[in-house]
Structures are given as C-alpha cells and as structure tokens.
Amino acid sequence: MDFVFSAVDMKKEEIQALEEAYARRGCPVVSNNSAHRWTPDVPMVVPEINPEHLRVIEAQRRRLGTERGFIAVKSNCSLQSYVPALHPLRAFGLEQVLVCTYQAISGAGKTFETWPEMVDNVIPYIGGEEEKSEQEPLKLWGRVENGVIVNAAGPSITAQCLRVPASNGHMAAVFARFRNKPSLDEIKAAWAGFQGRAQELALPSAPKQFLHYFEEPDRPQTRLDRMTEGGMAVCIGRLRPDTQYDYKFVCLSHNTLRGAAGGAVLLAELLCAEGYIQRR
Fold first, then answer.
1. Given CB 3.0 to 4.6 Å as the disulfide criterion, which of 27, 99, 185, 220 pairs with 252?
2. Are residues 181 and 112 in contact, defined by beta-carbon separation less than 8 angstroms?
C-alpha cells in the first residue's frame, strides 16, 4: 500500500507500537492519534503553519531503519481554532496568550443521542485538553535541530477548556499580549494576507483563504460559520483592545473536518506534494 491513515481506539503504548510497525515495514503513517505527538523525531504538522518540520522525517527513517516508512501526526483539534490566528501575529513579538476553548461534543466522539446529558449543559472539564492546548503549540512553533524537533520557548500559554452543547465546531476566546504591540489594522492585514504552504501548492483540500475575519459583532457563530470553505478555514471575529492584555478576539474551526479527518487528509496531500509519500 502507498500509505495508511491511523485513527484507532487503543492504549497509547499499543498505538505507538502499531504505527511504528507499519513505518518500519516501509509504510508511511498519517496519524490522527495523540500517541506520537511528543516523539521528538515525529513531525506534528499543520500544513499552513510548520511544513518545514517534515524534514525531520529523514532522521526518523534512520532511527526506524526504513527508507520509505515514517509517522507524521496532526495536532489536537482544539488548537485548530486559535493557533492559526496567532501564527501570523508572532511577527509582532507574541509574548503571552490566555485562551478559553468551547468544544463541541463530537470532539468526544458523541452526539446528543448518545450523550443526552449534554443537552442544555456545559461541562467545565475535558481530561488532558488544557495541557495539550498549552504545550502542543510550542512544538508546532519549534525548530528542527540535530534530527529532532525542539520546542519554541514561547509564547507562554494558559488554557481553560469547556465542553459545550454544540454538535460540531470548536470556538476559542483569545487574549494576547505583544512585545511590539500592533494596531488593529495591522492585525487584520496580517490575517487577510496570510498564505501557508497548503495555499501555495493549491492542495485539493486546502481553503483558498485560510483565515476569515468577520466585522459583524456577533460572528463567527458555530452553526453559521463552521462550514466556511468546506469546514477547512478558520473564522475570526470580535478583535478589540483588552484591559488586561493588549487585544482579545474569538476564533472558530470545524473540529471533525479541519481539526480531525480533513486535517489528516490535508497533511497527506502535503506529504505527497513534497515527495515524502510516493506510489509504490
């Protein structure tokens, strides 16, 4: 086979062993699981943010003893709502971030039929989610050095994650402080002008405009906007000054499309376009 997608419900150690077994046998693995996100030579890639991390694959192949196989993973679904919006703002010296995520029940693999307790309810806890939301962005913003990915030193991120009664769509309220504070217009221009590698290559699943800013005071809304560009874009709104941080805004992404299956497909498209996956 040319490659496999991995999205299995098993113990972490079992997933790690399974994915490495495929990779060692020369089969590339594009994983939607979290098991290998912190393996130092496994790239965790959002195609618009850190495609350069794919070059660590050569070191991983040497470790695994294979010329063709490897493992590449996507990040946690909650990151897809706010990290893309923060990424182009790093040019202004992004120093501190506070984020509160409001995550749909499909992120837990549930529907309202299978989880009736979520109707008219909010649960202020999602196991392990806050740690992922604070730490994984630093790997995305890290660098490849001596055959491993070294995490970025900053910005410092603190997160609070809540489960809310929406079927699909993760929303985030973001507060940011900068070393070189930009203007509101500079932030909007950075979002409007941002193009990642997925757009440069015109990958089939890539949104034409990755970041969409809404001027309306009540947008983005989960039900209205989660399917923007086929559910693969990130929607942003309500940018304004804050009394404690420099600015605050809200973001929205489709957690099962951009944040899960669609993100894995887009990563596979990038791996094919860059020559890491080739037909046998």
1. 220
2. no
